[in-house]
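Hey, sorry for the delay on this. The queue was backed up all week. Below are the sequences that define the complex (chains, strands and the ligand SMILES where applicable).
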Amino acid sequence: MTIFQTARLLLREFTPEDVDALAQVLSDPETMRYYLAPYDRPGVEQWIDRNRHRYENDGVGLWAMELTKRQEVIGDCGIILQEVEGERLYEIGYHLRRDFWGQGLATEAALACRDWAFTHLKAARLISLIRPENLPSCRVAGRVGMTIWKEVTWRGLPHHVYSIERAQSSVP
Ligand SMILES: CC(C)(COP(=O)(O)OP(=O)(O)OC[C@H]1O[C@@H](n2cnc3c(N)ncnc32)[C@H](O)[C@@H]1OP(=O)(O)O)[C@@H](O)C(=O)NCCC(=O)NCCS
């Protein structure tokens, strides 16, 4: 199911057939350097399963990011419910295959996710949980209009909670 399109990208729900394409993203040690470890193949399969459950239960999840002109999955971007200090918040997340970095693709997807979320969800705020040393991700959050709201220890590691409120966005 297609969620939305941007100038260069199509965002759609993942299916189990996407495992090879997604493994090129989530099994790359460099791409996953800010996580505990890259995913092995069963881990990528479970990751897809988890997000398919999120589509059903939460109406959102991390979606496949397809480069329209190549009809190829090159990453993920989407929205997931996270619990931060006892509060359930919608988070924008993104991971991109390394050979596509630096072309503004994550920013393009995240901007569209932000607008989709404020249009379709009753969320007052969107967040992104980012390790402070993950500068490219911090830049993407900044370009989406997010600023650092607070600092938390999340899954045992210090994280910036980037945030944008509905009132700050262009969506009423
Ligand atoms: C974060 C990520 C999705 C960005 O993807 P991308 O398409 O290359 O991002 P964009 O091209 O839209 O923008 C990247 C920004 O980071 C900046 N950047 C890139 N590498 C950088 C570095 N080493 N140090 C500082 N800034 C950097 C770019 O200059 C750009 O900012 P600008 O447009 O203001 O100049 C990609 O790096 C990635 O997949 N990283 C690994 C997964 C990850 O950490 N996800 C986020 C978890 S919170």
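Residues 163 and 169 are 11 Å apart (CA to CA).

I'll add it to the shared folder too.

S.
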